[in-house]
Design a protein that fits this description.
The complex is a heterodimer of chains A (384) and B (521).
Chain A: H1 3-16, H2 33-46, E1 75-80, E2 97-101, H3 111-124, E3 131-135, H4 139-149, E4 156-159, H5 165-181, E5 189-194, H6 197-201, H7 203-207, E6 215-218, H8 220-227, H9 239-252, E7 255-260, H10 267-280, E8 284-287, H11 292-300, H12 304-322, E9 329-330, E10 333-334, H13 337-352, H14 360-363
Parallel strand pairs in A: 1-2, 1-8, 2-3, 3-4, 4-5, 5-6, 6-7, 7-8
Antiparallel strand pairs in A: 9-10
Chain B: E1 7-9, E2 15-17, E3 19-20, E4 23-24, E5 58-59, H1 62-68, E6 76-79, H2 89-99, E7 105-109, H3 119-124, E8 128-131, H4 137-144, E9 152-154, H5 157-165, E10 173-178, E11 180-181, E12 187-188, H6 203-208, E13 211-216, E14 236-239, H7 246-249, H8 260-275, E15 284-287, H9 291-307, E16 311-318, H10 320-327, E17 331-339, H11 342-350, E18 354-356, H12 359-362, E19 377-380, E20 384-386, E21 391-392, H13 408-411, E22 417-420, E23 424-425, E24 428-429, E25 431-432, E26 447-450, E27 453-456, H14 461-466, H15 477-488, E28 497-506, E29 512-519
Parallel strand pairs in B: 5-14, 6-7, 6-10, 7-8, 9-28, 10-13, 13-14, 15-16, 15-19, 16-17, 17-18, 19-22, 20-25, 22-26
Antiparallel strand pairs in B: 1-2, 3-4, 11-12, 20-21, 23-24, 26-27, 28-29
Helix pairs in contact in B: 8-9
Classes of the chains: A alpha/beta (384), B alpha/beta (521).
């Protein structure tokens, strides 16, 4: 029912790729133009033609969404780069970030097509307020991925199987050069993924390799395979690795983020996993299904008790400072500066999630929040 | 062959045939615009003297029963869809008619399924002249391609009752597939290997047809109770090896959708029902067993539990999920139109609060009311919705027959009607300027929930007010349409349809709401 549009896109793509007098059969299964264009380009290249030529569809709304270094990265939703049907509606589920995956979710025979699909998606699909992430492949292929996606305003490059600072430095250089050449402001951000024993030992160097690293995360399937153990639900086998990543990230001043929870049907298991991740010190988690997103957001959100307690601490601290008292006490307990810092972080998050009004101090009576749980829906609060 | 039919414009501007299969029609006059007159159809008076005093009405075969019923060329024969895609009896009936050398029959199923595709060969051969009943799959294509000799007539479940009751369709012989029957003809759907729940789609036929044959593969001594079909209306009983494929009649496990977008639509629908204040003690709702509506029921169940709310009744399509709500005391009753899984069948059999209902009680517009008008909220699907909230459920945007109407039209009379639909299917927008085939007038459709926002019919100021400030993504229907058209690349081209009408869509009062047109491939 979009026959004319489909024909037009085919003609434009073939023209741009320098193909003339070709017989092309298109089986219409409802693909959108950006997908069709990528499929045609992949077919042309597979036929050994169109070398050096590309066909870039016109940019859509959201293409110029700017990069924000400081933002929530509680949930990052993985989408296989070879399955564009999931791209369009992913943002409706409001993950903090969408990852167009070129690595493990894509079959080796589809790597070429996936790269073009992801490139075209970055140009044309509106990802709304979601951060635009791409997980590249390992090695040289990954650098070629960077060359293709960084000029299309990929916000964050996820570097798989990160084991050395050198790896990060090379990706960083390629990404920044490509981004600059495309005329985008500000640097492309990086998130290395630790997935091996060696990666764990070098985690601090990896996290500190570039000022553009914003978070450090961990891939547990590869890690457990590397160590030679089964991945279990309890995760005792990976506790050291996860804590290593958390400590390396904190030492480097970036955010530690947990692996994915792979049983999509088990939302209770996911809930427990998120609470555990939060307790260990992670600030985010990978998602492989949109229904995991609200559970992850709810898990990382401060609880009403945590907010109330943090408010008491901060008020007591401010009161003591005002009165010039050196020692802050709350009830019978001493409040140390790091406790105040943690409380401020909790309140900052509560405010950002609209669980607490910014003027809560003036609305507070004796340290009790009136706001309650705010938009305490199970889906958690929206984004910032 | 081509037909040139005189067409007329109905109250919603749709071109509809003046005659359908030789009968004069009334064009749609508005939702409540038409008043039927006259008296109901009346079957002949019978005498017990002509039936065996020992109550044994068995004959050896369906062929023998049909001949004893006086089958003739051109008659109207009915079967029913309580076995859905696992039905053997519809196909058997037409096969037997072919062997008996009968021609030009009208097959009047309550719905046809892909398993009935072999009927196409019998239409080509002239045994069956045409089908009056919902058409999908291969039969839908046969009709849409303009290959059927008569016009297809699409009716809702309530509309089928109305048509039989009003004498608009005269059933000469009804053939009722019964999972459990006794020799007298009492029959039910809750026992036997092909148990399906209720047989009430066949109830009107058993009351109004000239002759009634019960076909069973599970004969029990008198009495077969509950007697959903009463033997006093039955002429003959035929025993066969198998009347259906249990695996395709009901499913052992009803699957909830895993589509993230459908789940989002389902969750928003449930939140709408809660936040609009509809979900309160003593309320009622209807939800089918489709992917989204089933998920809706599950979300609503969680919300009811959290809020401590108990429903008075749930209108099913029942599944194990509704049964669980009944067992957990979240509802007083299930009023069940059809049963989709084994848990539902067992519950209907064993729990007196799980009530089988007929299209007469739930849906028939030509009665002294029907309970569909006082269900608080119903959640339905649709293939298309237009910006005036008119909806299509029988064809795709390409104009090809896709679904039957089922109870869909009848459900629109609920206090709040919600269509839970995706904003687009692949590349095809679901919200359009004008529906391809009008199946439900927009004045009865209150809310459209899509993954890109919720649109409320501007007529429902009360609902708009009720959900104000509740954090739901309420949008103008045209905004959602614009969003989707931007993604899809503008408006789709209209279907390549010819000027030939191939089927008529009836409204619940028997008037003609719209036409289905032959579509060139």
């Amino acid at each position: 029912m979009y026959g004319e549009t489909v024909r037009g896109t085919c003609r434009a793509a073939l023209n741009a790729l320098g193909i003339r007098h070709a017989a092309v059969a298109v089986e219409d299964q409802g693909a959108l133009d950006f997908v069709l264009a990528a499929r045609i380009e992949a077919a042309v290249k597979r036929a050994g033609m169109g070398a050096g030529a590309t066909f870039l569809p016109p940019p859509g709304p959201g293409f110029d969404a700017s990069i924000t270094r400081d933002r929530f990265r509680r949930s990052r939703l993985y989408l296989p780069g070879s399955e564009p049907k999931h791209f369009l509606n992913a943002r409706l589920h409001e993950p903090d970030a969408i990852i167009l995956d070129l690595e493990d979710a894509v079959a080796p025979t589809e790597k070429d097509a996936a790269r073009l699909l992801v490139r075209n998606a970055l140009r044309t699909v509106d990802f709304g307020r979601c951060e635009r992430m791409v997980r590249i492949n390992e090695g040289e292929r990954g650098l070629e991925d960077v060359d293709v996606v960084a000029p299309q305003n990929a916000h964050v490059i996820l570097i798989p199987k990160a084991e050395t600072a050198e790896q990060v430095v090379v990706v960083d250089a390629r990404a920044q050069a490509a981004r600059r050449d495309a005329g985008f402001e500000g640097p492309c951000l990086l998130v290395p993924i630790i997935e091996s024993a060696l990666g764990c030992f070098n985690a601090l160097a990896v996290a500190s390799a570039s000022p553009n690293v914003v978070a450090l995360t961990i891939g547990l399937e590869d890690y457990t395979a590397d160590v030679g153990v089964e991945r279990t639900a309890e995760g005792r086998e990976s506790l050291w690795a996860r804590q290593t990543v958390i400590n390396a990230a904190r030492a480097a001043g970036v955010a530690p983020s947990d692996a994915v929870f792979s049983d999509v049907a088990d939302l209770d298991g996911l809930r427990a996993s998120v609470l555990e991740a939060k307790a260990l010190g992670f600030e985010g988690k990978g998602c492989i299904h949109p229904r995991q997103v609200p559970v992850v957001h709810a898990g990382f959100a401060p609880t009403a008790d945590e907010i109330t307690k943090a408010q008491r601490i901060v008020l007591a601290f401010e009161d003591a400072t005002l009165r010039g008292v050196g020692v802050v006490a709350l009830g019978s307990k001493m409040v140390d500066p790091p406790v105040v810092k943690r409380a401020l972080r909790t309140l900052g998050m509560a405010e950002a999630l609209a669980m607490l009004p910014p003027d809560w101090r003036s609305r507070t009576d004796g340290g009790r929040a009136e706001g309650g749980q705010g938009r305490g829906e199970s889906s958690g609060a929206g984004a910032q | 062959m081509t037909r040139v039919l005189p067409l007329t414009e109905n109250a919603l501007g749709r071109l509809v045939p003046e005659m359908v299969n030789g009968k004069r029609q009334v064009p749609f006059q508005g939702v409540h615009g038409h008043r039927a007159e006259g008296r109901k159809a009346s079957p002949p008076v019978w005498s017990a003297a002509d039936y065996p005093p020992d109550g044994d009405k068995r004959v050896a075969s369906l062929a023998e029963a049909l001949e004893a019923c006086g089958i003739q060329d051109g008659m109207t024969l009915s079967t029913h869809h309580h076995f859905r895609n696992g039905d053997f009896v519809g196909g058997l009936l037409v096969d037997v008619c072919a062997k008996l050398g009968k021609r030009d029959l009208t097959w009047f199923p309550s719905a046809a399924f892909p398993c009935h595709a072999p009927v196409i060969a019998h239409m080509d051969a002239g045994v069956v002249h045409h089908i009056e009943g919902s058409l999908n799959g291969p039969l839908g294509d046969y009709c849409t391609d303009g290959r059927m000799r008569g016009l297809g007539v699409l009716r809702s479940h309530g509309g089928r009752w109305q048509a039989i009751q009003d004498g608009e369709v005269h059933v000469d012989i009804a053939v009722i597939a019964a999972p459990c029957a006794d020799p007298f003809g009492n029959a039910n759907g809750v026992h036997g290997p092909a148990a399906c729940g209720s047989l009430y789609f066949a109830l009107a036929d058993s009351l109004y047809a000239d002759r009634v044959i019960v076909v069973t593969d599970h004969l029990v001594p008198f009495p077969a109770v509950p007697w959903q079909i009463q033997g006093n209306n039955v002429d003959y009983v035929v025993c066969v090896d198998r009347i259906g494929d249990p695996a395709r009649i009901v499913s052992g496990t009803t699957q909830i959708t895993t589509s993230p977008d459908r789940l989002l639509v389902a969750e928003w629908t449930a939140r709408f029902v809660r936040d609009a204040g509809i979900m309160k003690d003593g309320f009622s709702f209807q939800a089918g067993a489709g992917g989204t509506t089933l998920a809706f029921a599950i979300y609503l169940q969680e919300m009811m539990k959290r809020a401590g709310v108990r429903a008075r009744f749930i209108r099913g399509g029942s599944t194990k999920y509704l049964v669980r709500m009944l067992d957990e005391g979240l509802t007083d009753y299930i009023l069940d139109g059809q049963t989709f899984d084994l848990d539902g069948v067992a519950s209907m059999r064993d729990n007196p609060r799980h009530q089988a209902t007929s299209p007469f009680t739930s849906y028939n517009y030509h009665g002294k009311g029907f309970f569909g008008t006082f269900v608080d909220v119903v959640v339905l699907g649709a293939t298309e919705v237009d910006v005036n909230f008119n909806a299509n459920v029988v064809t795709h945007s390409d104009g090809r027959l896709l679904h039957g109407i089922g109870g869909w039209q009848n459900c629109l009379f609920a206090r709040c009607t919600i269509l839970a639909v995706p904003a687009m299917r692949d590349r095809i927008p679901v919200i359009v300027d004008e529906v391809t085939t009008l199946t439900g007038p927009g004045e009865l459709i209150d809310v459209i929930v899509t993954e890109r926002g919720i649109a409320i019919n501007p007529r429902r100021v009360d609902l708009l007010d009720a959900v104000k400030g509740k954090g739901l993504p309420i949008r103008d229907i045209r905004d959602i349409q614009r969003d989707v058209e931007r993604i899809c690349g503008g408006k789709p081209a209209p279907p390549r349809r010819s000027g030939q009408v191939v089927a008529a869509v009836k409204w619940v009062d028997g008037t003609v709401l719209d036409s289905v047109w032959k579509v060139d491939r």
